[in-house]
Amino acid sequence: MIFKDDTICAIATSMMDAGIGIIRVSGENAIDYVDKLYVNPSGKHTLKNYETHTINYGFIVDEKENKIDEVMVSIMRGPKSYTREDVVEINSHGGRLIMETIINLLINIGCRIAEPGEFTKRAFLNGRIDLTKAEAIMDLIHAKNEFSMKNSELQLSGELFNKIDSIRKEVLYEMAFIESAIDDPENYDLDGYPDRLNEKNNSWLSKIQKLIKNADEGMIRKDGIKTVIIGKPNAGKSSLLNKLAGEERAIVTDIEGTTRDIIEESINLGNIILHVIDTAGIRDTEDKIEQIGVEKAVKSADTADLILYIIDSTDDEISNDDRIKNIIDNNHVIVLLNKNDKSDSINITAEDIHKIYGDDIQVVKTSMVDEDGIDELKKIISDMFLNGDILPKEEMYVTNLRQKEALIHVEESLKKVQLSIEEEMSEDFFSIDLMNAYTYLGEIIGQEVDEDLVEEIFSKFCMGK
Questions:
Q1: Do residues 237 and 279 lie in contact, with contact meaning Cβ atoms separated by under 8 Å?
Q2: Is-contact 281 309, C-beta < 8 A?
Q3: Residue 281: pLDDT band by 50, 70, 90 thresholds?
Q4: What is the pLDDT of residues 11-33, one digit of tens each?
Q5: Residue 114 near residue 463 (C-beta atoms within 8 A)
Q6: What is d(CA 300, CA 277) in angstroms, rounded to the nearest whole number?
Q7: What is the 3 state secondary structure string of 362-414?
Q8: CB 405 within 8 A of CB 442
């Protein structure tokens, strides 16, 4: 894998005017380069004389020794730094112009602008962190709820690495034992070995399957549920979006067809995120703009994790639109019988819904006027996707599709080992599938990963991290 050992720099804080901005520099010449720009209160270039892990007051100056900014400069000499290289962090005032000026001065004396995620990539390549911790750092930065934050912290503490590394070491031991027994049968006895291996293999398989089983829930908890609201015009779709969001995000009127385009909102319900899309009412219309809105509604529903089908319970009958029926037949659906406050005018009941769509479909009676049914709706969503537990669990979840896919490959390999044992095949067949499992386990923690994948992973990081 290609490793770039030049000295890099980047703004590590947001590019906006703020009280403080941080510029990070890492590499063999980090201290020497910053020392050319830093002077102490006496005007001397003394940075490279300071001890590691100290923070030092002074000024950044240009090539003519003109003061640019008053700063605090941190020195972290490798290997006891984030990247295991020499790292310097310049704490300047947070004005955009000030930070860009300092960056340009660093470039002029030999630094290179860091690629996205390059500081963390260097930490990985230098062996400070494994790939699961690197991905956890990115998840922590982008965490949108308490679960994401806590789960990222668990992965940063080594929870996932330790589980994977432990299995990987055990698999390696068994591979080495089999190879030794084949090469030196006089000193290694394979009598009864398949049974012993089968017991260990079943233990590994159980641990891997548990991680896979929790992965879907983990990704939903982290990334949220794509939720599409559908229904006829004026059924209360936009009112539902507003109630869930806690603010007026969509225009609500008594005029049919008010919503003509999709409206998107991310809503945090306790510890679950709904990416809610309010769509145009599904009906036949001559209005070309509204037709486009209806087409978008159907298309959005095709890729949804959850459909909230809202029905005006005071209507004379349930819509028989084939587009709605197709959506309901192919998705997780909750039906909301709306306008429950108009008790004297209700014509459609839960029994009517079950007759058409089956007894298994979830039905909630709602009123957007009185906010009836909203709490029940939240609980049903929790039951449907999180086994009823809307609070974060202390258990570590896999929340990364790359990791999940590698775990599935591990599971497949271990099942092949299991089958080889059941069919009483020779021990060298065990080794082939054990090696595959070992390789895929290595992919998860970054010990068996190619350069292209590393580049792809770290390209998703923000600048300066």
A1: yes
A2: no
A3: low
A4: 999 877 888 999 999 999 999 99
A5: yes
A6: 8
A7: EEEECECCCCECHHHHHHHHHHHHHCCCCCCCCCCCCCCHHHHHHHHHHHHHH
A8: no
